[in-house]
Amino acid sequence: MLFAVPCRVLRAKKVRLANVMFFTVNILDMSWALLFTVYFVALAHTLGRSILNILRAREHPPLPGFIIAQAIGFAIISYGIFLIGLLGMIYKPVLSITFFALIPILCRHEIKKLYLVCKSGFTREKSCSFMKELSFPAKLALAMLLLFMIVNFITTLSPPIARDALKYHLFLPKNYCLHHSIAPVPGNIYSFFPQFTEMLYTFCLALANDYSAHLIHYYFGILTLFSICALVKKNSSAERAIFVGLIFYSMPIVSQLSGWAYVDLVLLFYIFTGLVLFFEALENKNSFLLLISAIPFGISLGIKYLALFPILVISMILWAGYLFSSPDKRTFPFKTLFIFFTLIFAIASPWYIRNILLVKNPFFPFFSSIFGVKGWEAESALMYDTLLRTYGAGTHLKDLLLAPFRLSNYGTSFKYFDGVIGAGCLVFLLLLPFKKPRKRKIVYLLICSLCLFFLWFYSSQQSRFLLPAVAIACVSFYSIFEHRVLGIIAAGLVITIALFNIFFVVSNPLFKKTFSFIVRTPDRDTFLLENLYNYAPIKYINDQLPDNSKTYFILVGNIGYYVDKPFVQESVFEDRLFRKVVTTSNSPDEIYDNFTKQGITHLLINENMAAKYLYPDIPPEKIKQFKDFSSKSLDIMYRKNSFSLYRIKPQ
Q: pLDDT band for position 1 (50/70/90)?
């Protein structure tokens, strides 16, 4: 009893000291990620401007040269990382010399110009002058925009827990950094997807940390916001641009994605940029600008297969314009358009050529009935395609009519569409007939948005896949604010909906946990244990298993990014190897041989999921055979909640 109180005090001091140390490390990691991201953005700008200068391309309306330079600059970095990875040279010294020394030296003149622009472009006088010109509702909308930027920024400062990031958006870059080269991961079909954004994340993980990957994705949301505002400002006014920007940026799905290391905001930026430049080129009959617009389209096709949709839409618009034009004015610039589409596919080609060489299918695992399948069974490809179509509430006429209302639902829409679009877009679409946009290119963008919506509706109905259609539809809303009475009502609606959306985002449990992680400094492992149901067994594996172990994950879920020891996990259907081994083996010894010949030393099984979805599908005699194998050859090492970790006994 004499030493009880001093011991408790000492332990409390140790805990506080540990918290302070973790807080310091965490702040340092976040600060380094922020500094790295700022440098990343500046590097992309200088590279992009250098290319535009080589092409002798001036700033083309309607998007400022800064946005076009960013689009090109990030592409150069991504393809540079891809080339370095193909050469097996993803090492910190190589990346540091290339991107922190060699490129800045080559682009030193553009860096100097960027410094002068930053020094003279943001002055107090200009800011005050701009604010004085705005009405009070516009100032309030601008304040709401800044608030959303801050809230979305906060969501970037927690460890990654989004499922696709753990499965491949961050897991693959981590794997590339570990092996210093870019190569498909066995069993992970996502490693065959186009990986433009993953190359940017590889750069982040190699030289910074996962916070920087979050910040890069967040930044592309900001870039898209700037693009929308720039387009509206050119066609209307800065005040209306603020309102339209708030409609887009206050959508809950944008806030949700801003804190995740996904690819959807990157894809949105490039598709939006490509479409705006494309329709500007058509309206002004500018062949050079048309070819410039091919660059973001090609890059978007290197981000996600989904980019085929807008390319298909512009092809339909070009063909329809040719067919419905009068015969005496009917012209079709075959040569220019041939170069345009050739340039698109040439820019995207590295990812598709790689797939052709590896699996004979450029769009693997899709279109397997056309290209065939190598390395992945046709049945699995069909199952994966079916899985993607499970999102949404149906494809009947009733579902089509109700889709806008369901997407705006803050309650059950997450269940159907994996995200919330919010009420803003629906409300202003209903107001649009009262004040339609008259500018031709804005009307074209609206038609393009409608076409993208139909393509989305009959594919995988995930709300984030609809973002390109929503963003370009938002541009047309500026016309509503031009009406004297309707504009006042619309301004009030924008601010009201934004207030509701900010409450919806801030009240989300994930935001609260992220804020707690920053302010109260819980341990990183504690945060992951609280927010990832499958992290506890992974922590045990990382801490306890030897480096030469190899664990087979059975129905464990998305967690690969946090696994530090060798493991086997099929990316979509995690129990396929288990089913194959158990059903084709004729004895417990054969089961043992089938596992061990693949180097597997441990099995991690989600027992609850296995009992519900796996064991009932296997014949009873095979299950009995597996139980005999378990009693003879498996030792339980860890069991908690629904997870069991078994060691395969050496014979």
A: very low
Band the pLDDT of 317: cuts 50, 70, 90.
Answer: confident
Backbone angles phi, psi at 88, to 5 degrees: 70, 40
Q: What is the mean pLDDT of residues 594-617?
A: 92
Handedness of CA 474, 480, 482, 484 (dihedral sign): negative
- The dihedrals phi and psi of 529, each to the nearest 5 degrees, come to -65, -35
Output the CA–CA distances (angstroms, integers) from residue 459 to 199, 306, 316, 394, in the order listed: 27, 10, 18, 11
Neighbours of 590 (CB within 10 A): 15
Amino acid, res. 478: Y
Residue type, 80: G
Give, as one character, the DSSP assignment of residue 635: E
N- to C-terminal Cα separation, the chain? 52
Report pLDDT digits (tens) over 609-624: 999 989 999 999 999 9
Longest dimension (CA), the chain: 104
For the cut 50, the answer to whether the pLDDT of residue 8 exceeds it is no
Rounded to the nearest angstrom, the gap between the alpha carbon of residue 109 and the centroid of all alpha carbons in its chain is 33
What are 348-382's pLDDT values in tens digits? 999 999 988 888 888 888 887 777 766 555 566 66
For residue 238, with 0-12 CB atoms within 10 Å meaning exposed, 13-18 middle and 19 or more buried, which class applies? middle
Q: Which residues contact 179 (CB under 8 A, 6 or more apart)?
A: none
DSSP label at 481?
Answer: G
- Residue position matching structure tokens 């804190």: 259
Question: Tell me: the pLDDT tens digits for 215-230?
Answer: 999 999 999 999 999 9
- Per residue in 503-519, pLDDT (tens digit) is 988 888 778 888 878 77
- Position 118 confidence tier, pLDDT thresholds 50, 70, 90: low
The side-by-side arrangement of strands in the sheet containing 643-648 is: 567-568, 551-554, 602-606, 643-648, 634-640
Question: Could you give the CA distance from residue 67 to residue 544 in angstroms, rounded to a whole number?
Answer: 49
DSSP 190: G
> What is the residue whose two structure tokens read 């040719």?
322
428 and 246 in contact (C-beta within 8 Å)?
no
Instruction: Note the pLDDT of residue 625.
Output: 92
Are 299 and 348 a contacting pair, CB within 8 Å? yes
| Token pair of 112 as six digits | 């100097």
In DSSP terms, which residues pair with 646 in a beta bridge?
603, 636
Cβ distance 47 to 107 under 8 Å? yes
Contact assessment for residue 220 and residue 265, using Cβ atoms and an 8 Å cutoff:
yes
CA distance 539 to 528: 10
Separation between Cα atoms, residue 526 and residue 522, nearest integer Å: 6
- In this structure, what are the phi and psi dihedrals at residue 421, rounded to the nearest 5 degrees? -75, -40
- Token duo for residue 533: 């149901």
CA atoms of 461 and 389, how far apart (whole Å): 7
Cα 414 from chain centroid? 17
pLDDT at residue 62, as a whole number: 62
Contact 554, 612 (CB under 8 A): no
* Exposed / middle / buried, residue 525 (Cβ in 10 Å: 0-12, 13-18, 19+): middle
